[in-house]
Amino acid sequence: MPEQPGKNAIEVRGVRKVFGTGENQVAALDTVSVSIRENEFFTLLGPSGCGKTTLLRLIAGFDFPTAGEILLHGQDIAPLPPFKRPVNTVFQSYALFPHMTVAQNIGFGLEMLGKPKGETEARVAQMLKLVKMEALKARRTSQISGGQQQRVALARALAPQPKVLLLDEPLSALDYKLRKEMQIELKRLQNETGITFIFVTHDQEEALTMSDRIAVMSAGKILQVGTPRDIYDRPAERFVADFIGETNFLPGTVVSKQAGVATVKFASNATIAAGYPEGFDPTDEVTLVVRPEHADLVPDPAKGTIAGTLSNIVYFGTDTHYHVKLDGGDNFIVRHQNSRSSPVTYATGAKVGIQFEEDAARVLKD
Amino acid sequence: MAEPRVMDIKDQPGFRSIAIICLLVLYIPVLILMIFSFNSGSLVTHWEGVTLNWYGSAFLNEEFHSAAKNTLIISVTATIVSTICATLAAIGMTRVKPWRGLAAAFMVINLPLMVPEIITAVATLSFFALIAGTFGLNFGIGNLIFAHTVFCIPFAYMPIRARLEDMDLTLEYAAADLYATPWNAFKRITLPLLVPGIMSGAALAFIVSFDDFTITQLVAGPGQTTLPLYIWNQIRRPMTPEINAISTILLLVSILFVSVSFLIARRRAK
């Protein structure tokens, strides 16, 4: 279970990576520390340029940290060249060797490790089976589809049985349906092989559905590490809340606070109890975040915590988004799951109230 | 709505006629040269009838044999050595961290392409004369091989470098990731993928060496006549269609060599 602290596969300790010299110095990673457990599906999530790929390259050995240590099962691997690290990578572009067949690609790592021919062949056959590519083993990599190349890239990286598998946005080149299939496939492969996966993506949905734990990164720093549920329900910072899923931001004033719960007053004079993260001391003007699905519409504006006018209703099939213009002037979105018998129907222009579910609102650092 | 049309140069007025004129100017003289190699008369300007005799006499010509042998020894050796040097230089300049003087090194390698050939020829001649005068050394045909190797390097270098720059660097990262030492990564990944570039480089070097005249003319000693020099000596005498036949043979060898290397490069690139 990911919640139980296990042994660490990878420990990143105070790693800095600076590119350029003199005035043009850029810190791609700004003193990052994180522990990745054995057999974990760990995701580095963040927008492009946040340093997630840099961190992956440091673990793979394609770059070396400016400062800090990277421990693999307790041993510092930061100074080792890539070919001496028991870590394999699935590249974003797959990087399959175009002059070799599918089977030769998969066997390359084992061959370089000097494994006996028979062992290599057996392992390649096993890998071909694992990724369901037996029929195409003699093909050149240019003669197979993008999804198939993806499977070969996975098999090639898994064949030498690495301690840790690194995946650099491996699904980004696939179309939507294939991506969904590969997400499930990746989870299956991780379960079957028991290898620690470190997965880099900018796609929050991908991160939420696949990961045991996620590290959200921005501007060279790790902002929060937690299970998908932690990250989504209890974001530590405004950036995390904004980057993952849709969120409403509401201005309010802190009236009182105790034991991690603040009472916040809105412009309408309504008050609400809202939790806040540890180590943060909210005072005066604050921003509250509320997920659209953690709020409900009520027809009577007086019954809501806050009130406003319905400005737009957007139908999404599985659910409906109600855009409310609050009396204070801010916009607020309520997401309502559609069912066969929705009790109330609303019309744009109607005055409505918004109620929050228990613990729905949180006060966050800006 | 009208289909938006991409501008096609073929639709420009006069394109076709200009293209045809250019091709005619390029190939008619060569074609005439080839046609007159079959002339049964002994003049290269007056057609009398069809014969293959000039090819026969060319093949029996001892001087032609010796010139062909010299040319092949020089060209093949120069091609091999210059291609190896060019490959090493290209790898040293694309697969390393940028170093001070990288741009200068690039200039130095390519400078021979820009220096007028006659200057290189005179310089090479003086250089060998200096060595012969100071140390009493003369390498015979080695002098020519050395000179050809040097001016072939930039020609071989260009396509090899282009191929290295086009190559996806991630492939080399992937090889290193899969436990390949730098040498193994080079041997198993970079080198096989570089073969088309090396083939084009070698083909170019061979052709440049094969038909070099200026430098060879100045550097060649007695008994070191190459085919271009032989042809030059022949046309200073009354010309017979034998020279046309020899030229045609040279042309066919060049075409054959270029085509083969082109086909190999294309097959490897797939």
What does this structure look like?
The complex is a heterodimer of chains A (366) and B (270). With 366 residues, chain A is of the alpha+beta class. Chain A has eight helices and 20 strands. Chain A has helices at 52-60, 102-112, 117-130, 146-158, 176-193, 204-210, 228-233, 238-243; strands at 8-19, 26-37, 41-45, 67-72, 75-76, 87-90, 164-168, 196-201, 213-218, 221-226, 248-258, 261-265, 271-275, 285-290, 295-298, 306-315, 319-326, 331-337, 351-356, 362-364. In chain A, the strands form four sheets. In chain A, strands 6-7-8-3-9-10 form a six-stranded mixed sheet, with helices on both faces. A five-stranded antiparallel sheet of chain A has the order 13-12-11-14-20, with no helix packed on it. In chain A, α2 packs parallel to α4 and α3 (117-130) packs across α4 (146-158). Chain A starts with 7 loop residues before the first strand and ends with a strand. Chain B is mainly α and 270 residues long. Chain B has one domain: MetI-like (MetI-like fold, Orthogonal Bundle), CATH 1.10.3720. Chain B is built from eleven helices and no strands. Chain B has helices at residues 15-36, 53-60, 62-94, 102-114, 117-135, 141-166, 169-177, 182-210, 214-219, 227-235, 241-269. In chain B, α7 runs antiparallel to α8. The longest helix of chain B has 33 residues, at 62-94. The mean pLDDT of chain B is 87. Chains A and B meet through β6 and α2 of A and α7 and α8 of B.
Class of secondary structure makeup of chain A: alpha+beta
Biggest sheet descriptor of chain B: none
**Total number of distinct structural domains of chain A:** 2
From the helix content, strand content and strand pairing of chain B, which structural class follows?
mainly alpha
CATH topology of chain B: MetI-like fold
- Oligomer type: heterodimer
Q: CATH superfamily of the largest domain in chain A, please?
A: P-loop containing nucleotide triphosphate hydrolases
